[in-house]
Amino acid sequence: MVRTEFVAAIKQVGTLGALETVETVRKVRGLLARQVAQSVAAVPAPAGVKIESRMVPSRHTPGHSVPVRTYTAVSSTVRTPMPCCIYIHGGGFMFGTMDDVHFQCTRFASDLQCTVINVDYRLAPEFPFPVPLEDCYDAGIIAGGGK
User: Fold this and answer.
1) Rounded Cα gap, residues 2 and 37, in angstroms
2) Which of 16-30, 43-57, 128-142 reaches the highest mean pLDDT?
3) pTM value?
4) What separation, in Å, do the N-terminal and C-terminal C-alpha atoms of the chain show?
């Protein structure tokens, strides 16, 4: 079932034709991003989750930093050290942003009493494989306290 707020964007995507050019891919990303932004803004974050955005230096691309958002459960029952998961949004390494899964990440942190690291990796075709996967790896290692 498709959420109603995405129906208009999906119809517009269908009029763009095949995803044969970088320009078409960017148009589709823009349409979807606008719909997601409206949807995310309408949903309040669950209580008891601390949300922080930061940049993590890339170990594979000198001078580049990977945007990450951490969602940490804050309550008197939280275990230390706290369990952690890295959430890599869907989209086949070509579509999607960390905002697409903002609500899911807040729910995971709250419901599972853990820290969730949400990675906004670079996308293909501008950054072909393995660049997106390296961004996710770097974010997980460094945001998790490694070097």
Assistant:
1) 17
2) 128-142
3) 0.74
4) 42
How big is the CA angle at 130 (ends 129 and 131), to the nearest 5 degrees? 95
The encoded tokens of residue 38 equal 């409206």
Residue 68's nearest CA partner among 145, 127, 147, 138 is: 138
Closest CA to 98 of 61, 129, 143: 143
| Residue-wise pLDDT tens digits, 102-138 | 888 999 999 998 999 999 999 988 999 999 999 999 8
**To 5 degrees, how large is the angle CA 112–CA 43–CA 120?**
70
Domain residue spans of the chain: 4-41, 49-143
Q: What is the mean pLDDT of residues 55-76?
A: 89
In the prediction, which pLDDT does 82 show? Answer: 82
> What distance in Å separates the CA atoms of residue 144 and residue 49, rounded to the nearest whole number?
18
For residue 37, which amino acid is it?
A: A
**With bands split at pLDDT 50, 70 and 90, how would you rate the model's confidence at 100?**
confident
| Fold entry, domain 49-143 | Rossmann fold (3.40.50)
Give dist(CA 90, CA 92) in Å, integer: 6
